[in-house]
Amino acid sequence: MITPIEKVYAIVDHTRCLAYMLGDCIVPSNVREGYLARLVIRRTLRMMNELNIQEPLAELVEEQIKIIGMNSFEQDISVVREIVDRETTKFASTLERGTRIVQKLAKSYRAKSQRIPLSEIITLYDSMASSRRW
Amino acid sequence: MAHHASTPPLKKIYWKDRTVELCDQFIASIGGDVNNVTYKEHPWIGGGNAGPSVEVLIGGLEIATLVFMSLGRQKTQGHGYEMNGEMYYPMNLRIVDTGYGLERLVWASKGSPTIYDAVFPEMVSRVMRAAGLLHILDNKDYTKILALNAKFAGSWTSLARISSSCVKRWLLRSMYRRKNSTR
Questions:
Q1: How far is CA A13 from the centre of its chain?
Q2: Which terminal residue of chain B, N or C, has fewer Cβ atoms less than 10 Å from its own Cβ?
Q3: Three-state SS string across chain B, please?
Q4: In chain A, where the domains are located
């Protein structure tokens, strides 16, 4: 019963974290602090999906920036919005691609009446790691 | 938030008594009831050093930790202490390392069920509404859990400026939120 509320609190916490990260000019990427920002964005998006929240993530991050105070940050608010929107789209297509690959794999092994071997799972984990469940 | 002091040999800066005194004065200065503060002392070990440490709690909620580093693994002439099966000896340098939870103080002063409700109430409200979860506040079990949580945080009567019951206030606020959401 308490789980959805825990997610609400986590989203609230993560969006504030993102306000500071992106407001301080971190750009999401696949290395160093950029990767951390990407992980936080994706974890937040995942929880928002689970709660069926339609509001864009960029709106929530913008609200946090406004609460903290626009003058506290170097990054332009429109850039923050653009970054979050782009990451949101990118994550959706990564998830879609991942789902297609898993379905294809499952289908082909099912046709052969075999279990999916561990090596395939490891390849999946390595190549699609950014969309895995944490 | 923190204050630190590194005391070299033969010099006196400050140590335990003064640190606790500073902590007490700080709590009083922001309106806290010092008679409601618990100081809980116990030894700590970590990273090759050790010493005493003091947890600072208001009504059960930890708001600060005062850490004192006075022992090290290197053998010196002073009296050694065995901790977790290893020997620790007095160091020449004595270090005070404190940490105060800024947001925990806010939580203690607001007496809300969680630190989230104390630090970002507007966002909690907004995300609860976006997730369509406001109806959950009608659930008696849920409000009971939150009330218990607030009780365990235990701090709402601790700061002198706060007198009203936390849970009542929080529930009133929740009802207000719900009213707004149905507009």
A1: 14
A2: C
A3: CCCEEEECCCCCCCCHHHHHHHHHHHHHHCCECHHHEEEEEEEEEECCEEEEEEEEEECCEEEEEEEEEEEECCCCCCCCEEECCEEEEEEEEEEEEEEECHHHHHHHHHCCCCHHHHHCHHHHHHHHHHCCCHHHHHCHHHHHHHHHHHHHHCCCCCECCCCCCHHHHHHHHHHHHHHHHCC
A4: 3-92
Residue B128 is nearest to which of A8, A13, A15, comparing CB atoms? A8
CB contact under 8 Å between B145 and A55, yes or no, is no
Which of B120, B133, B141 lies at the smallest CB-CB distance from A4?
Answer: B133
Q: Per residue in B109-139, is it b (16+ CB within 10 Å) or e — as a string?
A: bbbbbbbbbbbbbebbbbbbbbbebbebbee
What is the rounded CA–CA span in Å between residue B150 and residue B173? 15
Contact B139 A1 (CB under 8 A): yes
Which member of A13, A53, A64 has the closest CB to residue B131? A53
What are the structural domains, with CATH classification, of chain B? 4-100 (3.30.930.10), 105-181 (no CATH)
- pLDDT digits 0-9 by tens, A2-14: 788 889 999 999 9
At B12-62, the pLDDT tens digits run: 889 999 999 999 999 999 888 889 899 999 999 998 999 999 999 987 789
The size of the A-B interface in CB pairs under 8 A is 54
Minimum CA–CA partner of A64 in chain B: B123
Residues 6+ apart with CB under 8 A from A80: A19, A22, A23, A58, A61, A62, A65
Residues of A in contact with B123 (CB under 8 A): 12, 15-16, 60, 63-64, 67
The shortest C-alpha distance from A65 to chain B (Å) reads 11
Task: Return the residue of A nearest to B131 by Cα.
Answer: A53
